[in-house]
Amino acid sequence: MSLVAENESIIDLLDRLCAVVPDYPSPGISFKDLTPVFADPTGLRRIVDELIAPFAGTFDLVAGLEARGFVLAAAAAYASDTGMLTIRKAGKLPRETFRDDYSLEYGSGSLEIHRDEFEPGTRVLVLDDVLATGGTVGSALRLLELAGAQVAGIGVVLELEELNGRAQLPETKLVSLQKV
Ligand code: AMP
């Protein structure tokens, strides 16, 4: 059963259901755990609907960033009758990939995308749970460009305002449901 009333605002819903975990995964990091929102039937539908509404009709595929971005992107692709791309941590995709190295709030990493999953010029909406420094989304945008996509925009549930990730990204429509 859902803990969310249909008329509850997205901000109230996120304030209530997002779990904030201090000093995880390392000291000084305030981890925003959205899994209680994903686990709520109304919560998941509401955040996915709000993320895709501003981009209605402007994208052909949704790209999810491993791992929590997959939850949002799969639901968004289903709801918008489009398909989904998985942008994964290095070494997980079985076929030929493009690879990009990046840094994030608590470490660094590499992302990959399959080389041949869509036609050049395909319009792709990028979804993830949290925008922190912008390193991860920035990496995804570079990969999509390498693979020939046209980025339709970026949607994130939470934007950590003090890290100013938005300023690190190229000029692209970026929607966040809540700035924290
Ligand atoms: P960044 O590349 O610094 O923008 O970090 C964004 C990525 O790291 C997203 O995929 C998030 O899932 C994760 N992330 C970074 N910081 C946090 C945080 N404080 N709480 C939850 N997830 C985070």
Q: Can you put this structure into words, describing what you see?
A:
The protein is of the alpha/beta class. It has a domain at 57-179: Rossmann fold. The chain contains six helices and nine strands. The strands form two sheets. A seven-stranded mixed beta sheet has the order 5-6-4-3-7-8-9, sandwiched between helices. Helix 5 (135-146) links the parallel strand 7 (123-131) and strand 8 (150-159). Helix 3 (41-52) packs across helix 4. The longest helix is centred in the N-terminal third of the chain and has 12 residues, at 41-52. The model has no long low-confidence stretch (mean pLDDT 96). Bound molecules: adenosine monophosphate (AMP). Adenosine monophosphate binds at residues 29-32, 65, 68, 104-105, 128-136, 160, 165.
Secondary-structure blueprint of this entry?
Blueprint: H1 10-17, E1 19-22, E2 30-33, H2 35-38, H3 41-52, E3 61-65, H4 68-79, E4 83-89, E5 97-104, E6 107-114, E7 123-131, H5 135-146, E8 150-159, H6 165-168, E9 174-179
Helix pairs in contact: 3-4
Bound molecules: adenosine monophosphate (AMP).
Q: Spans of 5+ residues with little confidence (pLDDT < 50)?
A: none
CATH class of the domain at 57-179: Alpha Beta
Q: Kindly state the percentage of residues in helix.
A: 25-40%
In the CATH hierarchy, the architecture of the domain at 57-179 is 3-Layer(aba) Sandwich
Strand content: 25-35%
Radius of gyration: 16 Å
How does the major sheet shape up?
Answer: 7 strands, mixed
Indicate the CATH topology of the domain at 57-179: Rossmann fold
| Shape category | globular
